Each structure stands twice: as structure tokens, then as C-alpha cells.
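hey so u asked for the seq, here:
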Amino acid sequence: MVPFSFADHVLVALPQGALYWPARRALLIADLHFEKASWFAAGGQMLPPYDSIATLADLTTIVDTVQPAEIWCLGDSFHDSRGSDRLPERTQAMLQALIARTRWTWITGNHDAGLSDRCGGIIADEAVIDGLVLRHEADPADPRPELSGHFHPKFRVKLRGRHVSRRCFVASPAKIILPAFGALTGGLDAGHPEIRRAIGGQAEALVPVEDRLLRFALAA
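ran it, C-alpha cells below
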């Protein structure tokens, strides 16, 4: 894990797409999209129903490793506001076990704006902690340092004739957009105009790999 500086705080970008804040022992994740497969199934599009448990297994591994005191979910944690009602019993037990280990906060997003979670934790529209704004979608008009999700950024490059895509963080001096953590989520190119509009100038893609943090400037 390689730390980097943002708004006078030291943060660590994890290869799995989570952000760790050592000073607070806080873990931040975005766009889990629990129960996305069951939402599609209800509309007749059948997908393997293992997305939630796969996402939770990855998250449990990270929690076991970094031992956070706080977990902040930056919106779209469920694919819809009733997603928590559809969690299978085993998956719900895994989630409740994680929530019991930490101070857990759900920031609501556009998919789960009406979230009424029955697994525990605190629900909030947004939060401000130690000078950093935590919300689901970046606000270009807010000059305060901000952490958000929503766009599922991915860095795409062509190497040796092959197209390579990796989830990435997109950062500017005042904002960081986290990648989607969920197992069943797509991605938007890090240089997409909507991401650039949201984050402002001097943007770069941050790609954590093992013990390095790769930085790629994004063209204006």
C-alpha cells in the first residue's frame, strides 16, 4: 500500500478499489450495488445471483487486513432502495457481521436514495469529517475537498495490441472519485467528459498496483 497526500490528509488507494484513511482508521468504498442481479431478475433478465456475496467476500478480506474502525459507503450501496430486503439470509449475516465490527455509515446515492436498511449502520445524505466532504456524486460548484463515487471510473489503455482496463481513482487538487467496488458494476472511462466536468482541471487517474501507485494525467 502506497500512501499519497490529499488536502493535508494521508490516504491509501487499495488495488481492490477502496480508500483507506490511516489517521482515522477509516475505510471508504463506493458503488457496491448489492442485489443488482436480483433487480435484473425481477425484470426477466437472469444473471448469476452471487454479486452481493462476492462483493462482501472481497470487502471482508480488506477489513480483516486493515482492521478499520469506520466504514463509509459513498452511495449506491444497493442497486435500488429495496435491495436490502432481497439480501439472502447468508449474505445478510455476512453484512451484519461486518457492520458489527465497525462504525458503519451509508451515504445514500441516486440508486438507493430511499434506503431503509435493516442490517444496521447509520444512513446519511452526506457527511463532513475532518474537513473532507463525503457524498455520492461530486459537486463541481463546491470548492471544499471532497470524496465521492457515482461514475465507476476505469482507466483504459492499449498495450501491445491489447486493450487493458483497470478500475481507478480520479483525482484533482480538491476532489477524488472512487471506483465502483461492487462485483457486478460496469465502468466509465476516466477521461469521459462527465467525469472531467465533475472533478475540474488538473485531473489524473490513480491506479494502485501492489506496492505502487501509478498516475496518469487526463487530457483536458
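The mean pLDDT is 89. The first helix runs from residue 36 to 42.
lmk if thats what u needed
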